[in-house]
# Entry
Amino acid sequence: MKLTRRQKEVLDFITRFIEDNGYSPSMEEIAAHFGIASLNAIFKHLDALETRGYLHRDANRARSIQLASYGAGVEAIPLYGYVAAGRPIEAIASPETMPIPEPFLPKGGKGYVLQVRGDSMIEEHIRDGDYVVIESRETARPGETVVALVDNENVTLKKFYPEGGRVRLQPANETLEPMILDAGRVRIQGVVVSVLRRYH
Amino acid sequence: MKLTRRQKEVLDFITRFIEDNGYSPSMEEIAAHFGIASLNAIFKHLDALETRGYLHRDANRARSIQLASYGAGVEAIPLYGYVAAGRPIEAIASPETMPIPEPFLPKGGKGYVLQVRGDSMIEEHIRDGDYVVIESRETARPGETVVALVDNENVTLKKFYPEGGRVRLQPANETLEPMILDAGRVRIQGVVVSVLRRYH
DNA sequence: AAAAATCGGAAACATTTGGTTGACTTTCAC
DNA sequence: GTGAAAGTCAACCAAATGTTTCCGATTTTT
# Structure
């Protein structure tokens, strides 16, 4: 949050105003509230808040301020390292973090980031080198892409299908075979909630 | 890593201040809190903390300290709307913004976000509903995925191949035909630099 | 003990932020 | 259409804040 005191005050006022009234304040009302005689001062504050991503306006439209639905919400979550088919997570030397925008974060619970090695999920359009955001949890619905720990040894990224007392871990790649294991040998560590890819 | 006692005190103070107030302290406020008369001392502490990776600042910007563990490099860039094969960008009423982590931002120049409609880039592993970050520029290298404006009318997302005086705009989807056009009819608006996908 | 790093003070300087005034434009209800 | 309400914008100024330099004291390391 890199706002100045004044900018945060203005933002707070707008937030409260919209909550109370259901519509956004005019610039004059904002100015009046702060005892400022100048609309331009407010205008520039709104500009600043807009470029920083805290709100949106329609040009020339009266009372068109909307608070950013994404609230510039960002959280830094740990980047643990690589995950590949059939390999343990290679612990990374200095556990970095990566800032992730709110829309791509897990809705509930904690999360972390892994970088994908290999093309085992290629048919799910997850590529070698992609970053996947994982929601930490121990259960998954059939068909979800999970980080699974097998025999307390190997961590893999696969699609999850329970089959009676067994579990099928299915790569999304024709050329790779599914693993079918007793449920007791598989522990789910998390579920993929989003994918981020950088070209070049 | 190896912070001095003082540096840790300063860092702790900043952390608490941001938690309490929602914005970062000015150097004067930090100095006042420690009973120090020198802004330079604070400045150097901040320098030290920054080079050691505990925080980030924008040069010359008031109250621009951000703790590293928070959203380090994140910028809110406009979310213009949808792009599909052969359709103009549907101008969105009030352009929202979406915060994007620095590693996924264009390295040079401005950027914006579009949401992909349709499966025309599916073989590039860009799916219906994915968000693509676009670097605004007017040239592209062969094979890059570009946002192209055809005849000043239609905007499409395609792979770009110049062929003499012509341009081939190639969907990454077997079932779709490439467009081959005189270079004069095609204007490149930007190049895809990253892809973000949210499941569910 | 010497050298290097760190810490603190004071002042000058540069940039950004916050504010004023006033003219202009757009939107919208009548 | 017309006019009021609301938003846009330029020029200009003041205040707040961040940057830098010069200097000396203190602490840590070698």
Remarks:
- The longest helix of chain B spans residues 5-21.
- Confidence is low (pLDDT under 50) at residues 90-94 of chain B.
- Chain B touches chain A through 47 residues (CB under 8 Å).
